[in-house]
Structure formats: structure tokens, C-alpha cells
Amino acid sequence: LVDLQSCSSGQIVFDLLTFLNIDISKEIAICLYASILSDTGGFRHGHGSIQAHKTAAALLSTGIDPQAVYRNVFENITLEKVLQLGKCLSKIKIESDGAIVWTVQEYPVIDSGIGASYRVVEIIRAINGVKIAVFFEENYVKNETHISFRSNDPDIDVARIACEFGGGGHREASGASVKMEDPTDIRETVIKTLQKVLE
Fold it and tell me: Taking all residues of the chain, what is their mean pLDDT, rounded to a whole number?
């Protein structure tokens, strides 16, 4: 089931359950709210539509605790992960006069998901003047590189860029995973692609 206009997989499931006239319990509401919350970056990304807020309101009406869900999604991090985030941030590279910023995790030392790519790429995208932020996670166990893209420019659609590398996502937040034959080549190819977008 694909809905390119939807802000989140949680939104799609909510719409499906509503269409099927299935009651949404508090337990289900917690999961759906967490999905929408994470996919919209805490309702900060542009694809966090009016419908997403309406859905969130409906989910909140089941009695869930939004602060608890937020803490579990975004603030549940160990000291070890914080230290590893610091290592990633120490490797920041700037390209195209500050329009592109990127960094890399060269070993699979941070757990995947919100604990790694989300935090790193959201931090570096906040740097003044950045139009595109990229985080490369090089997983030597899976022999692949996961690439997280973020756009601060409404004219730059990183979902299209991610599609070029076999991925997808939203206009402002997307990702892709590619086989890691040569990590350096992957990074260079991605950066060159981004630079062409900026031309």
C-alpha cells in the first residue's frame, strides 16, 4: 500500500482502520502517534500536513500521553550513543560554500534508526546556511551504506535524490541504502549529485 501524499505510514494505517470502521485502542493509538511523530520530525517538516495534526488530535483523544511518546521516540538515548554522536559530529564536512554539510559513521557502532541517523542528520541540518544535510552510515556487517538526506530549501526535493540511489521518502527527509563496494566512491558520487542539484 503506497500513498505518496501521506506524511507517515502511521497515517496510512490510521486511514485504513478508519475506512474499515475498526476501533483504535489506546495501545494502537500510541504506535500510530509515534509513527506520525517520528516521520514528521515532531511535526516540524513541511509534510506534516493539516491532516497529520487532525489525526494526532484523534489519537490523543484515546487518552495517550504525548509527552511520554515524545520522550520515548526522541529522548531515549544512552550515554554511549551520545559519545558516538560526538564522534560523528567531529567529522563534519562542508561543501559548496556551506550549502551542503555531511558526516559519516564509518563503523556500525550506533544502533540504526532514530538512535543514529535521525539525530545526527537533524543536528547538522540546523547549521546556518545549510540547504542539504547528509549522513552516511557505513555498515560493514550488512556491507551497505545507508544515506540520510535532509533539505532546508523548499526548491530542493531530496526524495527525488534518494530515488536516484534506490531509496525514497519525503521532499524534506529521505533515505537510501546502497551496496558498499567502495565507501569513498559512494560519498563522492552522492556529493557530486547534490552539487549538480544546486547548480
Answer: 88
